[in-house]
Amino acid sequence: MHIILEQLGTIASLERSLHAAMAAPGVRSLFVLACEENRYPLPALDALLRGLSVPVFGGLFPAILHGRKQLTIGSLVVGLPQETTPHVIHGLSDPAADYVARLERTLDDGLAGRTLLVLVDGLASRIVSFVEALFCLHGLEGNYLGGGAGSLSFQQQPCLITNAGLVADAGVVVALDAPSRVAVGLGWRPLHDDQTAACFSRHCPGPCKTPLKATEVQHNAIISLDWEPALEVYGNLVRCHAGEQLSRADVFAMAKSYPLGITRLDDGIIVRDPLYLTPDGHLLCVGEIPPGAFMEVLHGSKESLIQAAAAAAVQVRRPPASAPALCLVMDCISRVLFLGADFSRELDSLQIPDAPLVGACSIGEIANTGRRRVDFHNKACVVGILEQV
């Protein structure tokens, strides 16, 4: 394995890094994590990727991670000793797509029991359906690790790196013959679990009702909660806890501190991050919401998030273990924005001896939680150890 970090963010510096990695002894595939702020000229980037003589996969993210550094300009090129086969599945927002059928046509039979790296366009509307189809076909014989690429502008654009160039509205699945361990750190809890919570609004009828039923949804857009407009219900609960009015113009700023969570009897909470209000007045989230799902408004502190990430890092260090080769982290960009300057503390907590850390600040995270299921998470810190890469 060979890791190259470049901090210029130019197409020329990326080209030098790619060719240097290919020239390193034993490198047979390239995994690329790059910053979307690099603003690569698309024709030049496509030509560069199509001209590579080895398989390449990766994405453009709001930021990348290397060791204890968070960078918004530059790229990481990881040269892998395995000749991988990146499988690209297009149409992750197609409302009629049968992803089980598409994956059956695209994937080979050799994925079972291996570590699957899964990258998606984080602004696609049917990521959950895609991840569930992948789980349906390949179960939990191996681990899953990955996340969503894309831009904080929330404008969907080409963001996934492939040998065919940069693509949008797609997913990339890569199987690695490498033992792995994966853990998920959250740190968010329902408002009603906060024993110190008080209603700051003198207009609140109280008590604030939770959980909420998602009475009308359309993929990743919440139209109504408890048969009332979603923004009104969500905004009232946030206002009651925070003592401030939810701005229709900046849902994402409020959601940094108050995400939504899908409650499940078997697996706790799956976080959903509201991004913005659609022209129709619907709450658009990162990831789908099942119709009829019960949801909570969540809250957390910087300390609870950092502690959850540290616990995830401890979990992947547990035996049995051989010498780890790589620590791969997908840490949600809205989580990073919530932590602010304290994100450096979260990064410190993720350092694992003899395992260089690489990763990205992603738009949604993909991981299996234990041996039960695979999920598309929001506002999570996903930590994976890839051994003997």
TrEMBL record:
Residues 230-369 form the FIST C-domain domain. It holds the Pfam family FIST. This is Histidine kinase. Residues 28-229 form the FIST domain. SMART domains: FIST, FIST_C.
